[in-house]
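Summary for the steering committee. One of the milestones for this cycle was to obtain a three-dimensional model of the protein with nicotinamide-adenine-dinucleotide bound, which we needed before selecting residues for the alanine scan. The sequence and ligand used are listed below.
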Amino acid sequence: MEHVLVTGGAGFIGSHFVKRLITAEDVARVTVLDALTYAGHVENLGTAFFSDKLRFVHGNVQDADLVNDVMASGPTAVVHFAAESHVGRSYGAAREFLSTNALGTQVLVDAAHRHTIGKFVHVSTDEVYGPLVQGSATEQAALRPSVPYAVSKAAGDLVALGAYQTLGLPVCVTRSSNNYGPYQYPEKIIPLFLTRLLRGMPVTLHDRGQHVRNWLHVEDNCAGIEAVLRDGKPGEVYNLGGGADLSSKDLTGYLLAVCGATWDAVTYIPDRPANDIRYSIDWAKARDQLGYRPKRRLEDGLAETAEWYRRNPDRWAPIARGKIPAVPLARTIPSGKGSPHA
Ligand code: NAD
C-alpha cells in the first residue's frame, strides 16, 4: 500500500477516506484525482491537502490520457469514489450519470490493467440491488436498479467486475448503504434538513416519509473500505451497512430533535417517480470475513453531525444561499417536486 490513488477524494466520503489514509503509517503517498464538480471541494480535505504525502490532480476520470499519466506515476492501489452521486439529479440526466459512473470506471480499469495495479476498489451502493419489500440483499442478490443513479452505478460495478473476469485486474466492489456525517454537500436528506432546520426553515418529506433506508456513518464506511482495500479478496463484492434501517419520517424525527425544531417545520409532498420504497442489505460477509463492525450509534452520529453543521456555517451557508453554483444539472430535476433529496 505504498501509494494509493483515490478518485473523487475531494467529495464527501472520498475526503474522509483520504484523511484516514494520510495518517496510515504504511501509506507513503496518496494521489487524489478529482474533477471538482459542484460536489467536490478541496476544503473537505482540511490539513491533509497540505500534507507532503498528498498530490492533488484536478481532472476527469473520463480523460484517458490524464488517467494513464496518473496511473503511470506509481500508484499500487486505486480506490474509486468519483461519481455523480445524487439520485434526484439523475432523473433526466441519465446520460451524464452513465458517462461518469460507467464509462469513467472503464477508463480507470483499462489504465489500472495497463499499469498492473495491485488492488482496485470500486466504491458502490446498495441501490444497485433495487427496492426490497422484505428481507435484506446479500452480495448474491440480482442487480435490479431502478432510478438512473442506481442504473449507472450498477453499470460501473459490472465494468469493474468484468475487468476482474477478463483482464484479471484485482477488483473488489463495496456496496454501502446511505452515508451521513460531516462535510456532506447539503442536497441529500440529512445535510439538507440539518442546514434548513438550523436556519429555522421548513423541510419537505416525500410521500409521508415512508421510504426506508439504512444509515451508515461515513467513518464506518471508510473503515470498511479500508478493510476491503487491505484484505478483500479479488473478484469479491462486500456489502457495508450500518445498524439502523429507518423510515424517512423516523429519521426526520431525530433531525428535528437534534435541531430543537418541531413537526410544524415539516410539509408532506407527493413522491417523485420511481422513488424506491425500501433498501436493505445484509453485511454479514464483511463482518465475518474482514472483521467489519460499524461503531457509531445513529443517535450519536446524528447529534455529532448536527453539531458540525451548527459550528461550520462557512462550509455550507454559501451553498445554501446559492453563492456557489450548486446545480449544474438542476435543469434536469423534475420541477415542482420540492427538495430533491436522496
Ligand atoms: P460526492 O458527490 O460527495 O463526491 C463525488 C466526488 O467525485 C466529488 O469530489 C466530485 O468532484 C468527483 N467527481 C465527480 N465526477 C467526476 C469525474 N468525472 N472525474 C473526477 N472526479 C469526479 O459523493 P459521495 O457521497 O462522497 O460518494 C462517493 C462514492 O460513494 C460514489 O461512488 C457514490 O456512488 C458512493 N456511495 C455514496 C453513498 C452516500 O450515501 N453518499 C452511499 C453508497 C455509495
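Key point for the committee: The pocket of nicotinamide-adenine-dinucleotide is lined by residues 7-8, 10-14, 34-37, 39-40, 60-62, 81-85, 100, 104, 123, 125, 153, 176, 178-179, 185 (CB under 6 Å).
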